[in-house]
Each structure stands twice: as C-alpha cells, then as structure tokens.
Amino acid sequence: MMFVFSTAYTLALLFLFTEAEPRSKSCKEVKAAYSSKGFNVNDVPNKGVQGAHLKVCPQGYSCCTLEMEEKLSQQSHSDLKAPVSQLSKDLQSTFKQRHSHFDQFFRELLDNAERSLNDMFVRTYGQMYVQNAELFKHFFQELKRYYLSGSAVVNLDSMLSEFWVDLLERMFRLVNVQYEFSDAYMECLSQHTDQLKPFGDVPRKLGLQLTRAFVAARTFTRGLAIMPEVVNKVSAVSASPSCVRAAMKMMYCPYCSGQVALKPCQNYCLNVMRGCLANQAELDAEWNNFLDAMLSLAERLEGPFNFESVMDPIDVKISEAIMNMQENSMQVSQKVFQGCGQPKLSKGTRAGRSVKETGFTGRFRPYSPDARPTTAAGTSLDRLTTDVKKKLKNAKKFWSTLPETVCAGERIAPGDDCWNGTAKSRYESVVMGIGLANQMSNPDVEVDITKPDLVIHSQITLLKETTYRLKAAHSGHDISMDPGDDDEEASGGEGSGSGCDSPSCDQDIYFSTPPTPINPRLVVLPRDNAGGAGGAFVSRGSVALALFGLAVALLFPHWR
Length: 560
Ligand SMILES: *[C@@H]1O[C@H](CO)[C@@H](O)[C@H](O)[C@H]1NC(C)=O
Description:
The protein has about 550 residues and is mainly alpha-helical. The protein contains 19 helices and 4 strands.
C-alpha cells in the first residue's frame, strides 16, 4: 500500500517535472538570445518563473523578469528606430550627394565661363580688355553672389543693366578718345542706354536667359539642400511611450514565453508601425507635392535656357554685344552728341590717337568649343538631371510606405505561423490606414490624433514654402523665402505677382520669347535729364560723324 502510494507520488512528481521541463529548457535559448543582445546572462532565470509582474508581456509563466522587460523595452526602442534611421540616412546621403554634384557643377560652370571669357577677351581685345577687366570680374562676382544668395542679396535685373551701362560708358570713351567727357556727360549717356540700344538685342536676350537659368539652377539646388534637412528632422522625431510599448510587445514578448525565434505577423507589424509613424506619414502629401515641383523644375534644367547652355557661350554673347556696339558706334555717338551735347576735344589731341596709344591691338577670333575646360563633376547637366529625376521619383511616398518597408524580410514571419501579440497564430485585427486620423482605433498603438507633432508640422510648412518657390522658379520668377524681404521685381510684372496659384503660372512663358520683356529689365529713368536735349535724338550729319569714322578706322583696324 505504502509502495503503491509512493510510486504514484513519484510518478506524479515525475509527471509534474516533465511538464515543467520544456519551459525551463526554453529559458536556455532565452539566455543565449538575451546575452547575444549584450545583456547580462545572469538576469535570465534558469527556469521560467510564475507570476512575474510584467508590464507589457503576458503575466504568468515567463522567462522574463521585470528588470529584463525594462531592458528589452529599451532594446525594442532602438530596434524600432534602426530601420527608419537607416532608410532615412540612405535618403539623406542620396540627396546630399546630388546637391553637391549640382552645386559643384554650377559653380564650375560659372568659374569656367569666367576663365574662358577672360582668355578669349585677352586674346581678342588685348590691353583694351585688361584695362577694363574689373568690369567683367565684378559681373561674375555678382552672378556668383546671386547664385548663392538669390534676389534678397542681388537684384539680377539691375545688376545686368548696370553692367551694360558701364560697358557702354567704357566703350563710348574708347571710340571717342579724342573727346573729353565729364561725369555729368556720362550720366546723360547712361540714362539713354535704354533708347540707344547700342548692344542690339543681346542685353535683353541674355538677361532673360540668365534670369531663367539662374533662378532655376539656384532654386533647384536649394530644394536638393533642404531634402536631407527635412529627412533628418522628421526621422529624428522620437517614438511615443505607447509606441515603445507596442514595439516591445511585438519584438520581445515572444522571448519571455521562450519562443526567441518567433517573428511578428506582417499585419501586426504594419499596425504597430503605422501607429508609431503616424506623424511622419502626415508629411507625405507635402513631400510628394514638393517632389513633383522638383521634377518639373528639373525640366527647366534640361530646357533651352538651361544653365550650361546659357553660361557656356557667355563670352561669345558678350562679345557679340561688343560687336554690335562697334557696328552701331557711329550712330550711337552721333545720337549721344545730339542728345547730351557736343563734347569738348581733349587738350593737345587731334582727332584720332594712334593704335599704340589706345592699346588696342587685338583681333576678334571665333570661339572654338573644343577648347572648353570640362568640369570636375565630369558630367553634363543632362546626365546629372536624368540621374536626379530618377532619385526624386524613388523618394516619392517615402513616409507613407515606411511601415511596409520596415515590416518586410527578416523582421516579420510570412504566413500565419507568426507572433500575433498573444500567441503563435494568425493576426485577426484589421490593418489601419495611413496617417494620424486613421489611427483612432489602432488596436496596438494608442495614438493621440488630436496632437500633430510640432517638428513635423514645421517641416510641412517648410516644404510648402519651398514648393511655392519651386513653382515660381518654373515660371522664371525668384521668390524670396521671407515675404518681408520679398523683392517686388522678383515676383514678376504680370498678373498679381503673388505667385503660382494665379493662372499666370500655368502659362508657359519659359520658352516663348515675347516681343517685349516680361519685366522691364532696364532701369526706368526720367526722360528729361539729358540737359534739356533728351528728346533731340534725331539723326543728323555732323562733324562728329567724320571724326568718329576716323576714330573707328584707327581703333578697330582688324575688327571683322
Ligand atoms: C492571436 O491568436 C489567439 C489564438 O489563436 C487569438 O485568440 C487572438 O485573437 C489572436 N490575436 C489577434 C490580435 O489576432
């Protein structure tokens, strides 16, 4: 009897022991997995413990202690951040690179254009150019400043008209060396640059091309520069406590029940991530608008007024203007003499100095495109643009698809043999939509849909502003970021000028060359400042004509 009882007791003990055996064994795997995460292996009990007061994972029989749960919770927080920050870093570096490619390319084009103009003009105009080189140096300095800082710092229109006025004054003195001109006389001349059109159509055309090319290049480059900033700020937004709880439950509660290899179901993961990244997804609409605006501005970089094709032959265009002035110089001088008065002959000078005295020994040589230096970026604007367009397209929907991108591959278990939050079983809950408003009844993450994240909100605002500028640049307008320092000329002469919600922005003014400039490019000056003779620009023969012809013959013996 005793024997029977004791046998039964032993059997019962044995039975209990074997029941408990798999659980205590499974904590060995937990120990291994836990220590592989860098935690102290001694935190893990040898056997599962009953009634551990866990905060997140199911209470009851568990390989986790409260301390372990806390550590795993921190781990889940960084595990949650890791894929998001990796994807964001990739995106940031893609556009940081593209930004530096474009920026370097534009700067080199500017440098090359300057160098090439300098070389060509030294060869062509010799001393006459060298003595006036600072005019061109200043011109390129201003272009660079505009490229860097935009219309808030350099008004391209007035910069260009000052350049032509300055060039006219210098050329006018050169073709009229026999005369002496007072400052007042030069002032009179400068005020009539507009009417005289000494450079033909070159200033108007070049102004239009430069403005469009620079506005597009500059705004596009700025757009590329803000992308990494936005991605950085948005991806750094920290997870809510409720999100960290959900991530802990999804990633590490299987550990506590001894199932270290069990991965979450895909839909479970999607709900957790859509809840956790609800604020980031709010960026998506503006992000996509921004990318669309970047993509259409990229077309401007390839178009006929692209930066490369405007900057590259700028030396030829400016020398064309000089040629025009040279051809028109007789009429121009005559009109000036009539309008501003007959100038005094300079002392001790007879009509016509020798070529040596004026230093002009150059000869116009046609420009050879083969001699162009290539940029270190080593690539044409077309290739850069094709590449960046691909990257911009790929970046679309980045924020809204982030949960899908994260809940894939190694991070989840396909099919129904997956962790559903309580068991190795099918996940039954409905998958939530994208964005804050859709998380109201998220079963896994509590999201306060009434409190949009402030950092993300400010990035949405930044994207909106940038998109507005990109659209304006598409129409050839440079809009200053700060409406306070908005340059009234930059917003354009047509319509309300208030930007691109107006129908004027739909009109493609970019490729058409209207008979009159879109904006009055040249400074509007009072008409009767020409010493009372402003209206007297009538062509009449005079002594000056004869003298002038002589001067031209002496000054420009080899021209043409
Ligand atoms: C997880 O699986 C268990 C067991 O099949 C089930 O009772 C529970 O409803 C499932 N949970 C979800 C969220 O699907």
